[in-house]
Amino acid sequence: MLWHFEISPRENFESAASHDVERHLAALGWRRMGPVEARRLYLLGGDIDEEDARRLGARLLSDEVVETCRVDAFDAVPSDDPRSVTITRKAGVMEPAEESIRRGAARLGLELDEIRTGTCFRFLGDLEEGDLETVARRLLANDVVDEILPGRRGLPLPHHPEPYRFRRIVVPLPDTDEGLLELSRSMGLSLNLEEMRTVRGHFAKMGRDPTDVELETLAQTWSEHCKHKTFTARVTMGERRYENLLKETVFEATRSLNKDWCVSVFKDNAGIVRFDDDFDLCIKVETHNHPSAIEPYGGAGTGLGGVIRDILGTGQGGKPVANLDVFCVGRPDVSAHNLPAGVHHPLRILEGVVAGVRDYGNRMGIPTVSGAVLFDERYTGNPLVFCGTVGLIPRGMSEGEARPGDLIVALGGRTGRDGIHGATFSSRELHEESESVDGGAVQIGNAITEKRMMDVLLAARDRHLFRAVTDCGAGGFSSAVGEMAEHIGADVELSRAPLKYPGLSYAEIWISEAQERMVLAVPPEHLDELKALCDSEDVESSVLGTFTDTSRLRLFYEGESVADMDMDFLHNGLPRPSREATWSPPPQEPREGFESRQPSDALAALLEEPNLASKEWIIRQYDHEVQAGSCIKPLVGARSDGPGDGSVVAPRLGSTKGFALGLGVQPWIADLDPYLASTAALDEAVRNVVAVGGDPEHTCLLDNFSWGNTAKPDRLGALVLAAEGLKDAALAMGMPFVSGKDSLNNEYATRDGSICIPHTVVVTALSLVHDVERTTTMDLKKAGNRLILVGPTRDERGGSAWMRLHGRRGDLAPHVDLKLAPKIHAAIHRVIRAGYAESCHDLSDGGLAAALAEMALAGDLGLEVELECVPGSEELETDAILFSETPSRYVLEIAASQWDDVRSILDGVPAADIGAVTASKRVRATHGKDTVVLDEDVDELAARFRSGLTRYMEGESRD
Amino acid sequence: MTEPRVCVLRAAGVNCNEETAFAFERAGAEVREIHVNQLLESPKLLGEFGAVAIPGGFSYGDDIAAGRILALEIDETLGEAFRSLVERGGLVIGICNGFQVLIKSGLLPGPSPDGPPIRATLRDNASHRYEDRWVRLRPDPSLCLFLNDDDELELPAAHAEGRFTVADESDLERLASDRRVALRYLGPEPGPAPYPFNPNGSAGDVAAIVDATGQVLGMMPHPERALFPWQHPRWTRERGRRTQGDGARIFENAVRHLRA
Are A650 and B134 in contact (CB < 8 Å)? Predict the structure, then answer.
């Protein structure tokens, strides 16, 4: 029998969920609709009588101290109610709680065969026609994954998908070009004409037409997402010619640096470098942009879940020890009325992606220690989500290879219809109907499934039960098995894959991007032990087939052949494109005609500008301390609210050996010059690790490009320049790239043309920290200490936060002095390692003024500096000294008595004593004799800094 | 002398087991991590241990409510084994999710020798958000065997459902008068601790409680993340002030008690 459960809070114990909705209603100008009641709903069926149902309600579903539970037979639910809206998952969308409910009921001796969950919101205030639907869409649900039922206060019947009936589908390939393109479009293959012709030629040679799953496999394998066609293309730009853009830029730096501590670069799911005598470190950063645009929570959560699996799927399996994330979204103050059709408000996107990373990362028990958030109107329609993970991998386990005869074992989550066509979807531009057309590409993750799978996988690794492992990411089994079997071959029986629900065709099983799945190559003699291990911790494992020596990929469904493909064609048959690139610098902005703000006013405005303002609202929601290794945390200082530079983690319990993580991203400089932007981003990432004690001699880098549509020559030209910048800067710094990823086609098509995101390169730096006790933080420590500015200042305000504050771009872009910069980073490292740095902060957004203000507010102290002491300041106006964003600069705080020692360590590097820490809690700067240019109250600056982003997130205004 | 044996419980979604095991080992215990499935099959296994730790994490995803499913498993199947461990003088500590499990399984507050049961639970933070921040804590005069002085502690708290809640004000009063409040959040001034010093809106600023024997402790903050000086968020401002983190005391006291 079916029973309906409605859980309500007792009086005086209202759930904070309803307060949250009320707060958002107020922010949207809909206060009249409140107050709001939130109730949890469950629909459970099975061999259950009324007494059982009451027991389920009391023992499993509610907490009698604070909640009441109403139980009804399903047919007796009074479900119509004009004040209520009920929200439940759409058919086929994962609901993580179902499995737990089943397990809990089983413990009570009850077997459930029907489960549905949902939430009912009841609005007690003034309601107008259509309000419920509007509020539900704007605030409570996302109709990509949720069913919204206005006027209902009860759940509908559970879904019952139709079973699948096998039918082998052959797809005739048209003779005409138009026909080929139409086929590519209608099947969502995202293959271009040349590629479709190549496919047709291949099958013509074989004398048959392909099956649907063969075409899908080619589309997945050849997708931009998997193959990086653009980045590895032949590219011509004026005089420059590249046979393979990636190999000749980013790879080339790594190859030529040839560091002996690089273990594995650019070939596995993550880059691997040496850590200590027992372990290597692996690191990967991924993008998950398009899914996050459509369903921010699910998109970002599965973005993180996916990069965690990259670490699990590196070598013979890495153990994740730290996460990072970077979000780029639209301006938080954009009016909801000015959003393009089909686009979520930037704040809703930000809230969603933060919650997605929070819920996945926290549940996995991996600290999220590092991150950045950028706001620009061009990210409104196409937000960016970068997620990264660092792992530890035992030395000697950094390689894995499947052998013929090994079993293909799927581990972890079940396969569903979620995430079909993710790889090809991410290779297209977004548009206003993406939500409805591509909704199937969105996945909702279940972190606990992944956590269980991780526990078992790492145990199996340590018992040597498998030979190779990879994750199911974009392209699902298709990519995972395809990659592992590339040089050997594989036979796969698709009907053996466990499914979330019936009804999936063989092609859907093969390309589904359902989360939390890994593929292992298991020698047959270890299968029983592996299965026993999996069973003991409730992890599902299934043998899908066998690796072979046939050089063919053969797929079967219930014994019938559905695909038989040549591995060589699959992996190497993709025609290599040739691309044209162009670049012309943007026209110069006229320099006259704008009044700059007073320094005092500009500094206050900068600190509360969302790009610079405190990210505490986000950081506190991430468990950044689980695993107990977090020693320089993302928030530092006297009140733990200062913006730390890098983060330091000691990943082995009881050891003080650690690593530092830093990030750099400079999209606004890219508006002026993509080459300078990527060198500046790289320098910024390096500063962030060096400032906390990372060793620049043992620093590796990752590059993540999010770009517009590179079929357009100017976008590609910018990409070429950015890649060149990374190469030159990496060579100069002596820091190899070990991994990277690109996401292209980040444009949003509107009726008025396509909006391209800023060219966005995220550089991640990972440094060794030899002893985590020899590190420092950016907060001022003690009045009387001296402040040393290291690195020369030039007037480089182009693309700076200060220019943007004035509504301008500027034209003097920051240059990294590639000869001097490595010397500066090395010198700072020596000072920190020798224990002289009481604090150290890099100069980035907002320049010297912002850096000093941040150090003061974090340390709850004051300071006084003389700008004429700043190295390089002789020819500069005050605003340039204060707000220029010249790279490779740091402020060091040292004891006054140690300046001579420190000066000798800094030999050969421009550095000067510019002032002192004071107890007065004022930020004071003078320029020239007695000319006070800043004299600010630290508490006032701190208040601005703290509220800049939080006021939006706490819902002060959204319209 | 054999070292005290501690069982660190694992389950789907439990994620602080390694650092909890490490903390007990560092304090001198011999530790085994045991999956709850194994314990559900043979509850008698608990007989081999002097103490059980239920670590932090998200057991079963905290689906329905934090700790609910694991609590039900303990209550339905392992209740006897836990009670007999306590009867023979053993210790139980639930940290964060472990506290949520203990309170939802009924092992905490547990029976009251003279009176009806105290009705208490943990529910969603008043901020309605997961938050990770360090808190100052003051031991209450209590029966708790894991604390033996009234020195303040600083520990990280990291949870979404840590608001200690009683059905009635009188439940809180009885808990205090029975000397069963182990730790309270401490604000900057005397008197009730405001947010964020009380990070979740807990009644009476209660951060940890014990059962009527003092042997079963549930606490929201994470002592296992505060063993070394450099885990403290302000250690670079206070170099040399600590030889170890404040959390170490909890494990050392437990091991000392088990040895006695």
Answer: no
Q: Is residue A18 part of a domain?
A: yes
B235 contacts on A by Cβ (under 8 Å): 631
Residue A864 in any domain: the answer is yes
Structural domain ending residue among the three candidates A119, A137, A152: A152
Please check whether residue A69 lies inside any domain of the structure.
yes
The domain boundary residue, chosen from A126, A152, A178:
A152
User: Which CATH number belongs to the domain containing residue A855 in this structure?
Assistant: 3.90.650.10
CATH topology of domain B5-259: Rossmann fold (3.40.50)
Angle of helix A820-833 versus helix A674-690 axis, rounded to 10: 10
Q: Which residues in chain A are closer than 8 Å to B225, comparing Cβ atoms? A: 625-626, 628
Q: Identify the closest residue of chain B to A98 by CA–CA distance.
A: B63
Could you give phi then psi for residue A156, rounded to 5 degrees?
-80, 175
pLDDT in tens, B37-70: 999 999 999 999 999 999 999 999 999 999 999 9
Give pLDDT tens digits for B213-228. 999 999 999 999 999 9
Residue B214 gets which letter from DSSP?
Answer: S
Mean pLDDT, range A547-560, rounded to an integer: 97
Give the pLDDT band of residue A438 (cuts 50, 70, 90): very low
Query: A82 near A127, Cβ under 8 Å?
Result: yes
- Average pLDDT of the segment spanning A59-84: 93
- The answer to whether A66 faces chain B, any CB pair under 8 Å, is yes
Given a cut of 50, whether residue A959 has pLDDT beyond it is no
Residues of chain B found within 8 Å of residue A892, distances taken between Cβ atoms: none
Give CA–CA dist B220/A223, Å, rounded: 47
SS (H, E, C) A684-734: HHHHHHHCCCCEEEEEEEEEEEECCCCCCHHHHHHHHHHHHHHHHHHHHHC
- Asked if the structure places residue A684 within a domain, the reply is no
pLDDT class of A929 with cuts at 50, 70, 90: confident
Are the beta carbons of B119 and B187 closer than 8 angstroms? no
A interface test, pick of B237, B239, B242, B243 with most A CB neighbours within 10 Å = B237
Write out the residue range of the structural domain in which residue A95 sits.
2-152
What is the number of structural domains in chain A? Answer: 2
What ipTM, to 2 d.p.? 0.97
Of A61, A66, A452, the CB nearest to B64: A61
Q: Does A654 touch chain B (CB under 8 A)?
A: yes
Q: Which two tokens stand for residue B114?
A: 């003279």
- The pLDDT value recorded for residue A142 is 85
Q: How far apart are the first and last CA of chain A?
A: 47
> Chain A residue closest to B230 (CA)?
A631
A448/B contact by beta carbon, under 8 A: yes
Smallest CA–CA distance, residue A480 to chain B, in Å, is 25
Residue A24 CA to residue A35 CA, distance in Å, equals 12
Contact B125 A16 (CB under 8 A): yes
**Could you say which of A13, A448, A620 has the minimum Cβ distance to residue B165?**
A13
Taking 50 as the threshold, does the pLDDT of residue A220 lie above it?
yes
Can you give the pLDDT at residue A232? 87
What CATH number is attached to the domain comprising A62? 3.30.1280.10
Distance between B108 CA and the closest CA of chain A, angstroms: 13
The label of the residue with tokens 């009140």 reads A639
pLDDT in tens, B111-147: 998 889 999 999 999 998 999 999 999 999 999 999 9
Nearest to A65 among B130, B165, B225 (CB): B165
- Delimit the domains of chain B by residue range: 5-259
